[in-house]
Design a protein that fits this description.
It is built from eleven helices and seven strands. Helix content is about 50%, strand content about 15%. The strands form two sheets. A four-stranded antiparallel β-sheet has the order 4-5-6-7. The C terminus is likely disordered. It folds into two domains: about 260 residues, no CATH class; about 110 residues, no CATH class.
Length: about 400
């Protein structure tokens, strides 16, 4: 016997007042539209739409708590994993701007673990959370709000063949049926003294000891599928077009929901083709933050300029006459005669050396400069910076030489 999800009629439920076909069409449009965006501002709109349907579905927390906890923990885990590793966003953004670096207080065979906290990782994790949560929220509502008796007729009404419509109907019932059979088998085996809590041994041994559960559930599933096949054969299923006991009819609200779904998808496609909706971070959060990862020559010069501006009290003229070379750390030591920068690095570490001319002022010791002061400011005419070229463990530039005061 097939069972279904915990569906019940709910007074005032918006989803249950709609034709299932209209809901499936809107859900498909919503799913496709959400997948077109990585911009957190656009994804916030989809989240608001999902929350609207959640609060108007009349699905209570008590009956859907397990589903929400599972989905919530699953999404949060992968969002945090992406935030810490940055692996999920390599195809979305090409460079990262450092917020801070968390360094472990210990080392493993000379390697000190650390995690880069960057602006791009933070917003990518946020976008990923908004994106997946919006889709998962509407997905959770399906088994709790749609009448399982209308699965087949709804899919058939969407234009699918009878075989596919009925296959979708059986698919929606498979998991709750399988769960019911597993729970009944577990209760029966416990009544015979089987204790699943006391399984011991390795993975293979534990799987072998679970045979009293796996074998009956598997055999029952096979026998149940054969019963369904026999019942369908007796009714000449697949010989010709079928009729359905229940008939669905679109109403005004159903047509309105379909129009909204199509407009949502059309607008999303238009924005996507126009170049909008791509990954976004606030420009204000990128200012004066060092880059992470492989630096191009242009990026190295930009970051070196930021390092020079941050190292002095005031810039008197715009930096100019940039020169940049990528060398090893050993070569940099030989060129600059300074072995204090990145002293923990191997000699073959690739680095950028960036020279620039300009005028930077440093306040004299003891206070700010004034015309009557006996200590005029110190003005430097050039700045030289060493930057890691492709290393993500040390991200700030190091100013290793300064010109003599003017």
């Amino acid at each position: 016997m097939l069972v279904t999800w915990r569906h019940r009629e709910r007074r005032g439920s918006l989803i249950q007042s709609l034709d299932p076909r209209a809901w499936w069409i809107f859900y498909a449009c919503f799913l496709a539209s959400t997948l077109l965006f990585w911009d957190a501002r656009f994804l916030a709109v989809f989240l608001a739409i999902a929350l609207f349907f959640i609060f108007t579905s009349r699905v209570t927390w008590q009956e859907s708590r397990r589903a929400w906890l599972f989905i919530g923990l699953f999404i949060t885990f992968f969002a945090i994993l992406t935030f810490l590793t940055g692996r999920g966003g390599v195809e979305v953004y090409q460079q990262e701007h450092l917020i801070t670096r968390l360094q472990a207080p210990f080392s493993i065979f000379g390697w000190q673990p650390g995690v880069n906290i960057t602006v791009e990782r933070s917003f990518f994790a946020l976008s990923q959370f908004l994106r997946v949560f919006s889709i998962a929220s509407l997905t959770i509502l399906i088994p709790y709000s749609l009448d399982p008796g209308l699965y087949g007729v709804a899919f058939r009404g969407l234009g699918l063949p009878d075989k596919i419509a009925y296959a979708m109907d059986l698919t929606m019932r498979f998991i709750p049926t399988f769960g019911r059979d597993f729970q009944l088998t577990l209760d029966a085996q416990r009544a015979r003294g089987y204790e699943i809590e006391n399984l011991r041994g390795g993975l293979i041994a534990q799987v072998r000891k679970m045979a009293p559960l796996i074998v009956p559930v598997t055999i029952h599933a096979i026998i149940g599928s054969e019963d369904i096949i026999d019942a369908m054969d007796l009714r000449a299923f697949g010989v010709g077009p079928r009729t359905w006991l229940q008939q669905l009819h679109y109403r005004r609200r159903d047509r309105l929901l379909i129009v909204l779904g199509v407009l949502l998808l059309t607008a999303s496609l238009g924005l996507s083709f126009s170049g909008l909706g791509k990954f976004w971070v606030p420009a204000q959060m990128l200012e004066n933050r060092p880059l992470v990862g492989n630096l191009t020559k242009e990026q190295a010069m930009t970051q070196a300029q930021q390092e020079c501006l941050a190292a002095y009290d005031e810039s008197l003229s715009a930096p100019h006459d940039f020169q940049a070379r990528q060398v090893t750390l050993k070569e940099a030591y030989a060129m600059l005669g300074n072995e204090m920068a990145f002293e923990q690095r191997p000699p073959d570490t690739p680095v950028w050396i960036v020279w620039m001319k300009g005028a930077w002022r440093v306040e004299p010791p003891g206070g700010s400069y004034s015309q009557d002061s006996d200590h005029p400011p110190i003005v430097f005419q050039n700045c030289t910076v060493i930057l890691p070229a492709n290393d993500q463990e040390s991200l700030g530039g190091v100013i290793v030489t300064k010109a003599l005061p003017q």
